[in-house]
Specification:
By secondary structure, this protein is an alpha/beta fold. It has two domains: 382 residues, Alpha/Beta hydrolase fold, catalytic domain (Rossmann fold); 80 residues, Tetratricopeptide repeat domain (Serine Threonine Protein Phosphatase 5, Tetratricopeptide repeat). It has 18 helices and twelve strands. Strand 8, helix 6 and strand 9 form a beta-alpha-beta unit. Helix 15 packs antiparallel against helix 16 and helix 16 runs antiparallel to helix 17.
Amino acid sequence: MRVFATSLAVVLFFFTAGASQAAAVFDFPNPPGPYKVGLQVVHQYDEARAWRGEIDPVSGQRNEGETARPVQTLVWYPATGSGKPLVYGDYLRLIGSEDDFTRSAQAAQKVADSVVRRGYLSESGPVQGQAALAGAMRARLDAAAAKGRFPVVIYAPSISAPAMENADLCEYLASHGYIVLASPSIGTRAREMASDLEGAETQAADIAFLIRHAHGLPNADVKRLAVAGYSWGGLANVLAAAKDRRIKALVGLDGSVRAYPELLAEAKYVTPLTIRVPMLYVAGRPASIEQLAARKKAVSGFLDDIRYADLYKLTMHPMEHFAFSSTYLRFASDGMFNQYPRAEVNRAHGWTAEYVLRFLDAYLKRDAAAKAWLDAPPSSHGMPTHAVTMEARPAAAAPAGREELAAELARHGFEHVHTAYAAMRTRDKTFSLREGELNDWGYQLLNRGEPQQAIHIFKLATFLYADSANAYDSLADACEQAGDTAAAIENYRRSLQLDPGNKNAEARLGVLDPHRKT
C-alpha cells in the first residue's frame, strides 16, 4: 500500500456554474449525534493488485504511469469543531480524481464537471442541481479527531458509484461515534464495474483493503467491525463477510444479494447457511409479479434461507431502489417519485438511517436499549404500518462444530471430551470429526506444550477410529511427551498390531522397551 496524497486541497474548487438561491429538495432529516464530524481523503494504491494494463484500451497508447489499483479512501470520524466546512459539491469534486490521482486540479475538475452534468444535473435540472451542490454538510475537512476508540463501519457503494453516494449516512454514523470508510466502486481493470462475480469479488477485495487501512487508524476499534452496502455493495459485503470472520455485522440497503442468485451460486464459498453474523436488510417497495417476471431471473430466497444469524428484514414501502442513496435524492426529479410524494420518501430515508444506527449500536456497542428498540415494531417508533414493515428472525442454534467442542472443553476441561462429543452428537446427528482433523488438533496442542490435553483428543480419535494404527501411534507419541512411558509403550504396541509395518512405532518401542520380544 502506498499513500499518494492525503488532502482535498488540490480539488476544492467551485463548479463553474454558480450556486443557486433555490432551496434544496433534500435535507437529511435526522439530527446529528454528540460528535462533530471530520473527513479525511487518502489517495493510495493497493500494490497487491494490478489495475491498468500495459495498453490504454481507450487511446491505444502505452500506459507509462502507475498500474497498481487506485483506492480513493474517504474516512469519516468523530471530531472536534475544527476543519474546513464542506458543501455537497465538495464531495462530488472527488469524482475527478477517484480513478487517477495524477490528474491536475484543472483536469480533475473537468472530469467532475462532466460527470455531474451528465449524471446528475441532466436529471435534476440546473436550479435544483445547483441548490444541491451548495448544500451545507456536517463534515469538516481534516478536522482534529475526538479522543476515544470507535467501532468501524466500511461502506460499500452501488455499482460503479463514487464513495460519497451516501455521505449523509456516513456523516450521521460518525456523529454517533463510528469511524466510517468508503471507496468508489471501480471495476477490476477499468473505471466501470462489471456485474459479474469477478466484479463483486473485486469490490469485496476493496472492502478488505479498507479494513487493513482501518487497522492503521489510532482511534479505530477494528474488533468492532461492520460492513454496510447499498445495491451492488450489498452483495460485495456478503462475499467479504464470508471470507473475513472479523466482520461482526452486515447492513444491506436494498442489497443485490437478492438480485443476483446466479452469482451467489457461482461463489460456492458463501451460502445462506454460512452467514453467521447478524444482518439488517432494508428493502425498497416490493416488485410486482410482472416486474419480477420481466427480470427473467430466478427469485432469490437467500435471505429467507439464512438460519444461523439474527436477521432483520425491514421493508420501506415509500422507497424505490434509487431512494437509498442521498445523492440520488438530491438530484431526483419529481417524475422519479411515483405513489409516494418526495417528502414521505425523504422521511423514510431518515428512518432507514436510524435503523442502521440502532442496529450497529445493538451489535457493535452491545447497547441493550438499541437492541430493545430494534426488536420493537416499527409502529412503536411512529412509523405507520402502511409504510414500514419488519420481519425479525433470531438465529437458530448453529450446527455442532469443532470450534464449539473446543470452547466446551476450554470451559469444562479436556478430560470431558467423550461426554461433550456425545452430547453434541445427540443434539446434531450430522456432527462428526474426521480422523485427520483430530490428529491435527492433537498435534497443535502438543506444539503448544499441552500434552495432557492432546492425550484426551487422541483418545477420542482411538475411540472413534479404533482400527486406525495412526491414531494409536499419535496417542503413544503424546503419552511419551507427557512422560507416561508405560502408556506410550502400550499404545505403540497396539499401533503395531494394527499395522505391523509401522516403522515409527517399531523404532520408539526399541527405545522405550528395548527388552521386549519381537
